[in-house]
Design brief:
Elements: E1 6-11, H1 19-31, E2 36-39, H2 58-68, E3 73-76, E4 79-80, H3 86-100, E5 104-109, H4 114-120, H5 129-144, E6 151-154, E7 159-163, E8 176-179, H6 185-193, E9 196-200, H7 204-221, E10 229-238, H8 242-251, E11 264-266, H9 268-281, E12 285-289, H10 296-305
């Protein structure tokens, strides 16, 4: 019998959301029984979104939510390796994990939004996979260093000399999410470092291919593929009637002619069918991307009309 499918809420606060907006959605997601609340790690709005009230920092937000929720998983999907020094990131994540009582997950990726980096003067190197690999080595190395010992690292991008590897997170290990559609390097990194491999914003054929690729990467490394959770993240718009569906698409500036081609879209029944197909492809967890955080009725509809058919 398959393990229960996990369903998480995933949102994009840089599109225009305050901390209070995020708190309200996260608390509603917890009350309604979703497994996790995850947010992007961006500082610049994309497209024609209203950017007000301005960006919020992902790990500052998660620290607040850690103290204002009780059981829901919290994390990033995903933090950019270009934003934070890995030693500081290890401290931040460990502290938020302790603040939450052991409910944090770290999604970490190379970063991709060049305009965001240019706007804030953040370096955006052309080659970023090496940066990500070293960050993963440092974060996991610091967390696993025995208390009283130091962690040394000498790489192309970073050097550490006797770092104490403190504080320790509550979870050992903290779940790490690595994702992407790359055919070789991303699956290899996931097989080596990750608890979860994620693929987002792709067709079902592309999802199946990515899952197959990471399975083979695990086998090449001698890791049991069953120890690596597989997940899918897709924009989600569900409504009980056509008028509400179109209103929700307009609120996130989505094209009604193409949105349903790849995403979780339409009636509650259509959403159920889509998520079940994702599970058949091998997904253990599905992230429902809800960009309009203030539409809590949307969240309630999914909880009452979609979720019961998936568990």
């Amino acid at each position: 019998m398959n393990a229960p499918l996990e369903l998480c809420i995933f949102t994009e606060p840089q599109q225009g959301a305050s901390y209070d907006d995020q708190l309200a959605q996260a608390q509603a997601a917890e009350r309604l029984g979703f497994d996790g609340w995850f947010r992007s790690d961006h500082f610049l709005a994309m497209g024609r979104a209203d950017p007000l009230p301005g960006p919020t920092d992902a790990w500052t937000t998660l620290a607040g939510l850690a103290r204002e929720t009780r059981g829901i998983r919290l994390g990033t999907l995903v933090s950019s390796a270009t934003f934070r020094h890995p030693s500081l990131l290890a401290i931040q994540v460990a502290q938020v994990d302790a603040m939450s009582g052991g409910r944090v997950e770290l999604g970490l990726g190379t970063g991709w939004f060049r305009e965001e980096h240019e706007a804030y003067g953040i370096p955006f190197p052309h080659q970023r996979f090496g940066l990500l690999e070293e960050q993963l080595e440092i974060v996991t190395g610091l967390w696993s260093t025995p208390v009283g010992e130091g962690f040394d690292f000498s790489g192309r991008h970073y050097g550490l000399d006797g770092a104490p590897g403190l504080p320790k997170p509550v979870q050992q290990p903290v779940p790490i999410i690595i994702g992407g559609a790359g055919p070789r390097r991303t699956p290899a990194l996931a097989a080596r470092f990750a608890t979860e491999f994620n693929i987002g914003f792709r067709s079902e054929d592309a999802i199946a291919a990515a899952f197959d690729g990471v399975r083979r990467a695990c086998e090449d490394l001698g890791r049991d593929p069953a120890t690596l959770r597989r997940s899918v993240a897709l924009p989600t718009v569900v409504a009980a009637d056509e008028a509400t569906y179109l209103r929700r698409l307009a609120a996130i500036d989505a094209d009604p002619d193409t949105f349903a081609e790849v995403n979780i879209a339409g009636s509650p029944g259509s959403a159920v069918e889509k998520v079940l197909r994702l599970r058949e492809l091998g997904a253990d967890r599905v992230y429902l991307q809800l960009v309009d955080l203030r539409d809590l009725e949307h969240l309630e509809l999914i909880a009452s009309e979609v979720v019961p058919h998936l568990r």
